[in-house]
Amino acid sequence: MSDRAESTEDRAGAEGAPARGRGRPRSEVAHRAILVATLELLDEAGYRALAIETVAKRAGVGKTTIYRRWPSKLELAIDAMHELRPPGPPEDTGSLEGDFGAFQRAQVERVARTPLPRVAPRLISEAVGDPELHAAIMRELIDPVREAVREVLRRGVERGELRPDLDLDLATDIVHGTVVYRIMLSQGDILSAAGAVPRVLDLLRAPSSSSGGPKSARPRSSGSSRARRGRSG
Asked: What is the pTM of this model?
């Protein structure tokens, strides 16, 4: 399709769209419509079936409108899931429960009313056979959440709420992995998944001591564990 035809299609889509409130730029409305359409289609058919042409039709825009913003469907799909990324460092409330509670509430508020809790596990499974998709999901979606979880756990170790020799990387896998696993089993019930976190944290807590106060120790990562296992082998 030529650029002229695409431009005509863009205008036609804009003319047929619902009336917009004053003060909202047309490009902002189109941008949001494209992301919503992409997320809906990912929920309905998955990443492999996603096509720019279908997104354009659902969003009421031309394909060139999409390609001007996202050069590929991979970048479009990842951007459509941006709400999964924490907007910043987790809030420091002064306690392990408070930090996790604040982090979980913020995540749930952003994604609970969207298809994201169903779409994310589906994309992860589709990424098994797609190295490019896998790398993008890890970089843009998984790693930011893991880093936030790791930071909350690190604070817990420093405060003495968690055991001083805690392997932070492994503990992050346990906490984050439990939530992802529960989301998959419940077909996207993020509230149920989040409810499992306090019980997981109980497994990681520092043992009570009669010495009066937590022992100070630097939390270690699984890298040191692997090094020790290599030397013992």
From this structure: 0.73
